[in-house]
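User: Here's a chain of 855 residues. Predict its fold as tokens.
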Amino acid sequence: PPIRAAALSDPHGLAARIAPGSALTASASTVSFSSFRRLVQSRNLSFEPAAAFSNPGPAPELEPEPESEPAEIPSAEPSPPPAATHPPPQLRPKRVHPNSVSEAPAAAAEQPKRPRGDPGNFVRLNINGYGRKKSFKSQARRPTKYRSWKRQQPGGGKPRAGADEEGDFVAEALLEREKNSAAGDDGVLKVVEVAREDPSEQNLEGLLRKVFGYDSFREGQLEAIQNVVAGESTVLVLPTGAGKSLCYQLPAMILPGLTLVVSPLLSLMVDQLRKLPAFLPGGLLASSQTSDEFHGTLRLLRAGEIKVLFVSPERFLNEEFLQIFGDTLPISLVVIDEAHCISEWSHNFRPSYLRLRASLLRRKLNIQCILAMTATATTQTLQEIVNALEIPSGNLIQTSQIRENLKLSISMSDNRLKDLMLLLKSPPFVNMRSIIVYCKFQTETDYVCKHLCDNNINAKSYHSGLLMKKRSRVQELFCSNKIRVVVATVAFGMGLDKSDVEGVIHYRLPESLEEYIQETGRAGRDGRLSHCHLLFDSTTFYKIRSLSHSDGIDEYAMSKFLNQIFSSGNTMGCICSFPKESTSRKFDIKEEVLLTVLTQLEIGEEQYLHLLPQFSVTCTLYFHKTSPQLLADKDILLRSILNKSEMKDGSYVFEVPRVANDMRITMNEVFDRLQKLKFSGELSYELKDPAYCYMILKRPDDLNALSANLTKWLSEVENSKIRKLDAMFALAYYAVKGCKKTDGCSGSEHTPCIQKRIIDYFSKKEGTPDDDYCTPLRKSSTFLQSDIKVFLQSNSFAKFTPRAVARIMHGISSPAFPAATWAKNHFWGRYMEVDFPVVIEAAKAELVKFVGKGE
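Assistant: Prediction complete.
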């Protein structure tokens, strides 16, 4: 059986429990099946009414687990066969449904059966339409006995809500972890105990050999591991594929408590979970999990059967989640993967990461040790990480961010599709077995992949628009060398367990040097010579640079948005909310930018509000049995709901925050009560309008000053993103136009000069211009003013801001002016080659004239 987390923190206690003659000295197959059965019991994959509730918000509220023991499952041990004089007859093997969960190859152990009336049995047999009992039609068109039975079951035989494709993908990963766990080994426990007592280099290398199979550490790994084991917070910067995961996996075996890993992508978490060593039990909590799966993971945590837990930053920052861990589960280490996302000056910062602060971790979870890991970070980004997590600057471990075994080449391309085909059919790429082609957009990815397949190149596309299982299948085929080329967006390669990728081709210009290094770093992880090529053209640069302006906000829109947040109707200390989609469209601000502003109001110099989990806040109630008034007489919550509801076609529509404030309870408690009534058959409900929820802690003294400061801050973040793109363009332009072919550069191969400029970039302070910096953007245009005037006159029905006009001229979609509506306009994207601020100023001047004339 797999070694339990409790065993790693108390090996002697485990040794006592598995001593000869104890109850745990059963056969390996019996113990393994019992362990597997416990996992099935804790996950409870059968249909339960509680799992039918699914909140459509991207970061659902977590519910604390009720304090109750799991129900006893009948033993699956086969009873001894009765004595017989004749050998038993040969039985035909029973057909097993592809979705069933069983312990292969334990044919002798019969799976425990559920009672006939349990709806879980029905749903499990009928998932995806397989194994369905035949439905016999009645000539009188009356329901048959089977139909009547099905109709009586809660849920009417429908699949459980929340059993979506991503949830199944996570469940499969958890089952795979259980099945692949190795048998316990006293030798491992002894090595762990020795390393715990004395974490010297010799003892840590002994643990490395015993568990991970490596003879020695790579550069930076040993120092990081020793820091973490000693309880010292550390920032670790290692190149892609240099073994960052080992730096928390090995300490997790030594440290007594839980290791919590905050990771940005579900697919990345699943990959990391699957790659944990067999002696290190792990689990994950994702928003796509059902309530049963979530509580099952919590049960395993409380039982000490999980040592490493992967969570998303959104889930990690949930109040209920923090309370559960702060009260019951000791955490020895918090690992923040892709830590560059913490900094707004990084190439890929996220609002949820922005909220990760040392003060929150220490206050809520009593965390004393933090390990922040990234593959690429500039000097300013590293300083932001150190400040946010309060890590001593002396505990920064950084190695070279580029690998010496990569040959880097860049060529100017007027026809990228044709040149890509030429590359793949010419040396050195023609002889490579594994190549990644990186594109920018999903449609472009599919188009390039189709073109390659039409030309007899074995290729598959990979992007976030594909189903999770299909993405997993593509990655599996690529790792097993059954696909030669994967055409992918930036998400592909994070956590990719394939060391023999021989080539990386960039079909489009990366958005930053950090992105370029990360993606090229997926080649040559085995230390062999690998090749990376960039197809460079200025048209791509124009498009990507235009998109860099999509997150900006005018001060006028910011002021209106802040007025809505702090409106007089929003009382301090009460739950407030606003729907994401309609608010985004109203102010022409992207949803993620709205969240960024809210986050800044929470973590800025002054804390104006406290962010709550996202909910769908508009609820429609349908009563089925008892009169609503009779139910309200017995239930004070229903009484409040009826008082604050609006009648529509016999249903009751209300805002959940209003009811929660009226009752002085949380929104989770409102949903819990509605769930109980739903299970009793009294009512059903629907949720809509996903919203950002918050509580006002303090009102700003000067709303205009706050608006100006936030607008300026967002403008600086936007400019930082643009400078990163310009630096990438400057490097590529220098390689194809300015390189003097010295220091080993020849033809399109520019490894020496590219490496030198990358080193200079990461050592510079943010905002320092390049000496030979240049972009092809124009600072003026002869017909810009007149075209804007014609555009305003022909679209006088719309209300434009200068930024909205500039976005249309640059071909940038926005919530209020989406590409689906405006891309057919004659002026869409016409002035992409003119610098965006120049277009804004021209639009501002024309709008003043237009409004002054009263047009």
